[in-house]
Design brief:
Blueprint (H helix, E strand, L loop, with lengths): L2 H19 L2 E13 L18 E5 L4 E4 L5 E8 L3 E2 L3 E10 L4 E9 L5 E7 L3 E9 L2
Antiparallel strand pairs: 1-2, 1-9, 2-3, 3-4, 4-6, 5-6, 6-7, 7-8, 8-9
């Protein structure tokens, strides 16, 4: 077999494995809150929790996260960051570009000491949006 045919075969195998292992995870939100920096660059306080019931999907096949709020928020995953785990949290983070072209980090945090409660954080550096989420069957 020539080298080119071998490379093509390997590429097809890799592409097939990626689609075989890719998954879509679905979550529902129960509330959200926002934290912003003030004009001096200091973090303010979290806004009051607003109750919301919207769908969130993490699609590893398409490398994107979608928050189906009134205005759909689409996050194209650029980098899958290493999983971080400590005594209280498991954090899955993704470097993303949103549908307006802005860079952000999207994180799904599991609070181990709070009955594995899950939260979704969208961090723009000067503003953080937090959704309380739970897995959908």
């Amino acid at each position: 077999m020539t080298r080119i045919k071998q490379y093509i075969l390997v590429l097809f195998l890799i592409a097939g494995l990626q689609s075989a292992f890719g998954q879509t995870y679905k979550f529902k939100t129960s509330g959200f809150s926002v934290l912003e920096k003030n004009e001096k660059g200091k973090w303010g306080k979290w806004s009051d929790l607003s109750l919301v019931n919207i769908l969130v999907t993490l699609d590893t096949n398409k490398s994107r996260i979608v928050v189906y709020s009134q205005i759909i928020q689409l996050f194209e995953i650029v980098t899958y960051q290493p999983i971080e785990e400590n005594d209280s949290d498991i954090v899955y983070s993704f470097t993303c570009i949103d549908n307006e072209g802005l860079n952000c980090t999207v994180s799904i945090v599991t609070r181990k000491k709070q009955d594995n409660r899950k939260q979704l954080y969208i961090n723009y550096g000067n503003r953080i949006i937090n959704y309380n989420i739970f897995n959908m069957p």
